[in-house]
Design goal:
- This protein is an alpha/beta fold.
- The protein contains 14 helices and 18 strands.
- Strands 7, 8, 9, 10, 11, 12, 14, 15, 16 and 18 form a ten-stranded mixed sheet that branches. The protein has a six-stranded parallel sheet with strand order 3-2-1-4-5-6, sandwiched between helices. A two-stranded antiparallel ribbon has the order 13-17.
- Helix 1 packs across helix 12, helix 5 packs parallel to helix 10 and helix 7 packs across helix 8.
- The chain is elongated and about 80 Å long.
């Protein structure tokens, strides 16, 4: 690699804008630490006239990012468009095939197309770096690929979405509803103002789980269907009841090997207030790895926002400039394992079940008898009547049971006229 490094930045949203500023502001520091001279030779976005915090150099601006490859010599390209396919994929593919190093925070792109893109990068002896795709500024991927490379990792889990974590924390702290806290999160820039769906429905966290799985277990990024639930159905009532039980609700992403089979899931969990994970609040992310001989390793930091993301992007840049050519997924693509998916029906947990019912004799026994029929035993029961409306809230904490028993049992309650709403289910983290 020459001492002169030509850089292109494609996508000038929140992340792209922040990154561009950082590249300009930290130019001397980057050059000092790498011995390379960096030059921004191309930038691309849909609208050159959009109001930004800095002035766009129109001489290096391209509306169509694919035009860059015909007109500029580029050594490193940052992709910050954010789509899993379409232009994002085409830009990254073209760059790699043109022997250009690529750095991206795009977890949707990597989780869907990472196997294919990693192969192209290997064939062309260039880097495909995506540290910023998981847990913001936490160097979790580099830790797995390098710092923990000789460890046998059996499990990786944690809080992987800062938006969801902020909403759950703020509901508890402020006593506000889900809808009200979401509006607050949008105003603060923690949630997308238009459509925050991907943060709330678990998809964002699940994409990160799949990337973590591949690196942790030397496997291909999985395409199999798995259990994925978000936080949209979490009610303030559940937050309050959890608090009474000395528990907190957290959206956890979990990946582990069960008898050599890959188990990946994202769903809300009830965790102890005294646990480490129960005390990770606000927009913070935390990732916990279990392996041998290292034991348990914990990494925590801000997972949302352009600042932490940019920090990870620049760490990837420095790695490339120092001549660190790595396999994108840790080992060569043709040596990655294809892991069989674990049967989610066998997933075992204690359950939190909340029923909104008519307050009349026999309703509680209808519920407990049904649970017993499906081998779900009651560990704790809380019944709160509302005499005004002749309704009651019944909360049941169960002993451990399988996902299959749980689903079969709960489906029956839909036909019970004494149960006013679909039961709320939250799993306890074991």
């Amino acid at each position: 690699m020459n001492n002169r490094i030509n850089i292109a930045v494609v996508g000038l949203g929140q992340v792209g804008n922040y990154l561009l500023n950082e590249l300009n502001n930290k130019k001397k520091e980057i050059e000092l630490k790498t011995g390379k001279k960096i030059y921004i030779v191309a930038i691309s976005a849909r609208n050159v006239n959009k109001k930004r915090q800095f002035k766009i150099n129109k001489k290096i601006f391209y509306k169509n990012p694919l035009d860059i490859f015909n007109k500029k010599k580029v050594d490193v390209l940052f992709e910050a468009i954010g789509q899993s396919d379409g232009v994002s994929k085409k830009v990254v593919e073209t760059a790699l095939k043109s022997k250009i190093h690529v750095i991206t925070p795009n977890k949707a792109l990597i989780s869907k197309n990472g196997n294919e893109l990693a192969k192209i990068a290997e064939q062309n002896n260039v880097n495909l770096e995506f540290e910023a795709s998981v847990a913001g500024g936490i160097p979790i991927l580099r830790s797995i690929k390098e710092g923990l490379a000789t460890n046998k990792i059996s499990k990786v889990y944690g809080i992987l979405n800062g938006t969801s974590n902020y909403i759950l924390s703020e509901m508890e702290n402020s006593n506000l509803s889900f809808a009200d806290v979401l509006k607050k999160a949008q105003k603060l820039g923690y949630a997308e103002p238009g459509n925050p769906k991907l943060d709330l429905n678990g998809f964002d966290a699940f994409a990160k789980v799949r990337i973590l799985s591949a690196l942790s277990f030397n496997s291909k990024i999985s395409k199999d269907k798995c259990l994925m639930e978000g936080i949209e159905k979490i009610d303030l009532k559940d937050i309050k009841i959890a608090n009474q039980l000395d528990l907190r609700i957290k959206l956890l992403g979990i990946s582990e090997l069960k008898n050599g089979e890959l188990f990946e899931t994202v769903h809300p969990c009830l965790v102890s207030k005294n646990s480490y994970i129960g005390n990770v609040t606000g927009v913070m992310n935390a990732v916990i790895l279990e392996g041998k001989p290292v034991g348990e390793s914990i990494l925590q930091g801000e997972g949302a926002g352009p600042g932490p993301t940019s920090s990870a992007l620049l760490s990837d840049l420095l790695s490339i400039l120092r001549g660190n050519i790595k396999k994108p997924l840790g080992v060569s693509v043709n040596k990655l394992k294809s892991l069989k998916p674990y049967n989610v029906n066998n997933y075992v947990n204690s359950l939190y079940l909340r029923f909104e019912v008519k307050d009349k004799p026999g309703v509680l026994s209808q519920i407990t008898n049904r649970l017993a029929k499906y081998k779900i035993s009651v560990k704790r029961l809380i019944q709160t009547p509302n005499k005004k409306d002749n309704k009651a809230t019944i909360v049941i904490i169960t002993h451990k049971t399988s996902e299959l028993n749980c689903n079969n049992c709960l489906s029956i309650f839909k036909n019970n006229k004494n149960i006013l709403k679909a039961p709320v289910l939250i799993r306890l983290y074991n």
